[in-house]
Amino acid sequence: MHLMSHSTHLQTNTTTPRTLEGLHVGESARILALNVETDLSKRFSALGLRPGNWVRVLRSASLGGPMHLRVGTTELILRRHEARSIALAP
Q1: What CATH number is given to the structural domain containing 45?
Q2: Residue 6's pLDDT band (boundaries 50, 70, 90)?
């Protein structure tokens, strides 16, 4: 029984965290964490990208282009690699 518990724990750790980059047009999610340096975290926070806030994808450019987002009443454009650094709640 101890081995089953350990096996389940290992499976949990191998799941890929959900990020903003994975959202599709029209989807919304709650921000869980910002995995960026302090300066960028401050900039994101000023734009409303803070843990606990909801973000919605309005448009998404093809071929890895930027994402058009809404956070509260603020609309912003975010690069894909920046969106990849924003963890979303499950």
Answers
A1: 2.30.30.90
A2: very low
